Amino acid sequence: MPNCAVAARQSRSTRYRTTRIHLPKRKCPLELIADAPHIPPRRNARSPVLTRDRKHTLWQRFTRMLRYRLVIPLKRSRHAPEHTARGVMIGVGWAMTPTVGIQMPIVFANWVITRKLFNWDFHLVNGLAWTWLSNIFTLPPLYYLFFMTGQFMLGRFDDLAGYEVFLKLIDGWQNVSLSDWEATSGWFSTILKGPGAAMIVGCIPWAILSGWVSYIWSLAFVRRYRARKAAARQKA
Questions:
Q1: How far are the Cα atoms of 65, 166, 196, 198, 228 from residue 173, in angstroms, in the given order?
Q2: Which of 142, 124, 134 is nearest to 92 (CA)?
Q3: Is 218 helix (H, G, I), strand (E, B) or coil?
Q4: Signed CA dihedral, 188, 189, 192, 193: sign only
Q5: How far apart are CA 13 and CA 17, in angstroms?
Q6: Alpha carbon distances (Å) from 175 to 132, 143, 169, 170, 179
Q7: pLDDT tens digits for 214-232?
Q8: Residue 164 contacts residue 142 (beta carbons within 8 Å)
């Protein structure tokens, strides 16, 4: 009889016994990323994939920056072609002056004055962008061109400095401090007595010529681009 009671208890215990399920050990997110298969990037015909191994030279990066800052705004402008071309003309005209560092404020002041007083408007964004023609790469040869032109226009044929001598003059001119009023007045006197006067005079014909050429080119460029875009839209 006791044996029957023990057997009954054992049968009841086995009846309600649960089976243990051994689950796999969870992995941390880093292990999941490491075990994930490599999926190659999708290539697009219009925008090719730029891998990290691809390297651009300094000149390629510079030309690409100029394209995005100068050419792309011309294509995206929604104003009339003449309005956009006037902005390029103003920007290039001020870029061909020895005013690197303050050209963008000058263009903005020009835009405000001509718009309020003379009712003459131009594309401000393109005007600001095209002042980038005078930059760290083009500044020394441009300033030398202004200086030599100014020397000829002022009749200083006996004071035609070479390019290396001119660079030394420019270095000394730019190292003048502007901490107080006396230094500022000394800086302006250095401009008038040194190469600054010749550069101011010599930049005038180049600014006028460059502004006129840039207006004709940008006007033709915008019109041609919009005509091609309209023709492609009609074909589609």
A1: 29, 10, 9, 14, 49
A2: 134
A3: helix
A4: negative
A5: 6
A6: 23, 16, 10, 9, 12
A7: 999 999 999 999 999 999 9
A8: no
Residue at 101: amino acid letter: G
* Radius of gyration of the CA atoms of the chain, in A: 35
How far is 192 from 153, CA to CA, in rounded Å?
A: 15
Distance CA 132, CA 66 (A): 8
Residues belonging to the chain: 236
The helix (run of H) or strand (run of E) holding residue 16 is: none
For 156-202, what is each residue's pLDDT tens digit? Answer: 777 776 666 666 666 655 554 445 455 445 555 655 566 778 889 99
Give the CA dihedral 57, 62, 64, 68, nearest 10 degrees. 160
What is the DSSP track for 66-99? HIIIIIHHHHH--S-HHHHHHHHHHHHHHHTSS-
3-state secondary structure of 212: helix
Domain positions in the chain: 58-235
| CA pair distance 176, 174, nearest whole angstrom | 5
Structure tokens that stand for 171 in this block: 């270095």
3-state DSSP percent of the chain in helix, strand and coil, to 5: 70, 0, 30
